Amino acid sequence: MKQRQFFVYMLASQKNGTLYIGVTSDLVQRVWQHKNDLVEGFIKKYAVHDLVWFESRLTAMTAITREKQIKKWNRSWKIELIDVENPDWNDLFGGISV
Q1: CA–CA separation, 71 vs 58, rounded Å?
Q2: Fewer CB atoms near the end CB (10 Å): N or C, the chain?
């Protein structure tokens, strides 16, 4: 039986552009929803569609805690987190298999 995972993720409008941080238990579905503007609000308004960073957590609580932690960071720390893992800010959506 596959253990359920939870994900903290960041989307960007472009390199060094507008950022969005979220949490989900189904990364592929959630990012697909964002890319297709199926959710009204910030993502749709600012065209924040590229998955530029994500990490998995074992529980919903640890994922939510991490999301809240990153949301409190200043912008330069968030950008550095992306740059370390994805320096070209490539859209990671096509390559995820979780």
Answers
A1: 20
A2: N
